[in-house]
Amino acid sequence: MYRATIIIPTYNEEANIEKLITRIVAACPNCCMIVVDDNSSDQTQSIVQRLSKNYPVRLITRNERGLSSAVVEGIRHADTSSVVVIDADLQHPPEVIPDLLSALDKGNVIAIGSRYCKGGGIKGWSTFRRLVSRVANSLGFPVVPSVKDRTSGFFAFKREVAPALNRLNIQGFKILLEFLALRKTCAIAEVPFTFEIRAGGESKFGFKQVWEYIRQLVRLYSQIPRGITAEDYEWHSFYKGHFIQKWWKKSVAKKIWSFIPPGEGSLLDVGCGSSPMIAEYPNAVGLDLNPLKLKFLTANLPAHSFANMDARNLAIVSESFDGVICSEVLEHIHDPELVIKEISRVLKNGGKAVIATPDYSRFLWRVAERFTPYEEDHVYKFSRKNLEELCVKHNLTPVAHKYVAMCDLVELFVKSA
Ligand SMILES: Nc1nc2c(ncn2[C@@H]2O[C@H](COP(=O)(O)OP(=O)(O)OP(=O)(O)O)[C@@H](O)[C@H]2O)c(=O)[nH]1
Ligand SMILES: [Mg+2]
Questions:
Q1: How far, rounded to the nearest angstrom, does the alpha carbon of residue 284 sit from its chain's CA centroid?
Q2: Which of 58, 75, 89 to mutate to test the pocket of ligand 1 (most atoms within 8 A of CB)?
Q3: Closest ligand, as measured to the CA of 85
Q4: Looking at ligand 1, which atom is closest to the CA of residue 204?
Q5: pTM
Q6: Which structural domains are found in the chain, ordered by start?
Q7: Residue range 295-347, pLDDT digits in tens
Q8: Are 326 and 270 in contact (CB under 8 A)?
Q9: Tens digit of each residue's pLDDT (9 = 90 or more) over 99-144
Q10: How far, in Å, is the centroid of ligand 2 from the Cα of 87?
């Protein structure tokens, strides 16, 4: 019985495959190989067939194209307890395979050949190519924050604890990310290696693969467990979210602070959630429907006042506040006009209201939304025009507006008598 099966997906790799197989044989005695070839038009298949007479290598041919699907097809044919996936172009040095396997022996379920952990690196890539790879890798952060190299094509795993193959999505180039998305809590090791430049032949990585990666990310993002209802969701995304999320939340807050500078009088935050935005306003009162979020904020901002109230029906005397903030609330409510009416009612004449909500008339938001967990939570889709119409109806006159990322609207209104 072999110690591990090494899966090698190939498409037109005649320049590299023989060298790879002989290096694997030298570096990894006791391992067998499966080459999954998608009908290469060069000599790849005949080279593998010739080598299979002397080495433990099998050839599987397919009449379709696709890197992830080729890898999964190879895994299906593997019958050893450990499986390794490696590119054919010698960018992944096979001499590292024993390190990956010993990481599995130590109890890890997945061992990643990692360019981005300590000791890892990339040889010979231009600054641009490095940047593209870094950005692609960072975009996988929300899926598996704890792993450093999420887009590696070089990894090993234990067959029996791998995700069920029929649950893996085989679209695209980055099958490791699918593994990680399904098995993010298992023991994962990163084994450093230096990514080499392609030895021969041509890269198959191009715009199509970039596009497929974006589609893969969109799908995986939408599967991230929804956290909006978590008591510390807003607080956490403000301080500890991934960099885009943090930047976005802080930008919205800064625009709100610019419209109603702290210290301007009494202030009500309608639907404060657990957002720390209210911390800047020492005398503010925060309202929310979710008591757990209020409890969380009370513990973190003990000097502030909070109340559990429905924004559509405020138990507050009319004309009692100088300012009202309503940020990222209206889009969650089926009949937001009721909230706008209440905001106007509790504001003093001449008081300021700041409303923040995504502008669905902006194409950019409709794209950006697909990368957020909010898609299904937004039941009312505003444009600036219909927000202003509703507000004007309730004596709130639009005064100024700003956008975050050109699509998330923050608008200032003043109550007229
Ligand atoms: N079976 C199969 N293998 C593929 C397919 N596309 C790429 N491969 C193989 O997958 C591995 C990685 O492909 P590369 O073209 O090297 O992609 P990359 O490493 O992301 O890009 P470079 O850094 O430019 O080489 C190589 O062994 C390819 O031969 C495919 O459609 N089917
Ligand atoms: Mg390559």
A1: 34
A2: 89
A3: 1
A4: 15
A5: 0.62
A6: 4-223 (3.90.550.10), 233-415 (3.40.50.150)
A7: 989 988 988 999 999 999 999 999 999 999 999 999 989 899 999 999 999 99
A8: yes
A9: 999 999 998 889 999 999 999 999 999 999 999 999 999 999 988 8
A10: 6
